[in-house]
Amino acid sequence: MEKILISGVRKVFRIKAGGDAARGDEPGELTALDGVDLSVRAGEFVTLVGPSGSGKSVLLDIVGGLASASSGRVSIDGVEVHEPARNSAYVFQQYALFPWRSAIGNVEYPLEVRGVGKAERREKARQLLALFGLSGFAERYPNQLSGGMQQRVAIARALASDPEVLLMDEPFAALDAQTREILQGELLRIWEEIRTTVLFVTHGIDEAVFLADRVVVMTARPGVVKKIIDVELPRPRLDHIRSSAEFNACRREVWEALSDEVKKAQRDQEYVLETESAS
Ligand SMILES: Nc1ncnc2c1ncn2[C@@H]1O[C@H](COP(=O)(O)OP(=O)(O)OP(=O)(O)O)[C@@H](O)[C@H]1O
């Protein structure tokens, strides 16, 4: 059963002359997405990779109702998305925690907004912090937590409202490599229990393969879906999978689809810089 349906989504930004425009853009316009089609099944974990500027974040914003498409449509459970939906939650790269609230206060926040009573929301937030091994840090404020802990709190906060769709935009990009791998494992362990539908943007090919049921490779801007790769590695995914032949084969397949697009994005960027310096 389809949870998220993305059909023919285009996104064109009006920009000042020059700007980031590259070959193919109309004057004063920047086409970020040029007809993205993708459907995500309920309970599926889909990762999105693509060169810088391929429109991954813009697409996630449109699915999350934080931005609107110039044309095309996005629906969740058949309902067109025009504003942030109650059944979806977002996790950003920067922890985006409220600095004036403790860890538990942050996790409680979405429940508070929904009018859930104090005892119930405390209990739910406690359970979520425990899932992430943060029971002992509930009263700490964000500036008293490491980056990895802050991002655990941010994910716990996103899960507090039991979202049916979880949108994650490079949530582990700011973390060191070891912490990132640990968090990938923790996220999967929790996702195995809740099986919410996840759309996860990343620059990391290993991360994309390790987490996903399917990896979606985007083209260089203007972004469209270039290739979708099924990841048929067994679940639960334990760390040793990362060194298996199947994992490496999958990784290679993703890189083969991605590498030309990365080169193209770099050429376009050089073109922009040359145009800027010539004008
Ligand atoms: N508000 C905006 N106004 C103008 N252009 C924008 C705006 N938001 C994004 N863009 C442009 O749209 C394109 C796609 O941006 P987006 O951030 O989605 O790329 P991305 O694939 O997520 O890149 P990265 O991997 O570097 O985060 C880029 O060229 C970006 O400069």
From TrEMBL:
Transmembrane segments: none annotated. It holds the Pfam family ABC_tran. Residues 4-245 form the ABC transporter domain. CDD domains: ABC_NrtD_SsuB_transporters. It comes from the Bacteria. PROSITE patterns: ABC_TRANSPORTER_1, ABC_TRANSPORTER_2. Keywords: ATP-binding, Nucleotide-binding, Transport. PANTHER family: ALIPHATIC SULFONATES IMPORT ATP-BINDING PROTEIN SSUB, TAURINE IMPORT ATP-BINDING PROTEIN-RELATED. Belongs to the ABC transporter superfamily. This is ABC transporter related protein. It comes from Rhodomicrobium vannielii (strain ATCC 17100 / DSM 162 / LMG 4299 / NCIMB 10020 / ATH 3.1.1). The lineage of its organism: Bacteria, Pseudomonadati, Pseudomonadota, Alphaproteobacteria, Hyphomicrobiales.
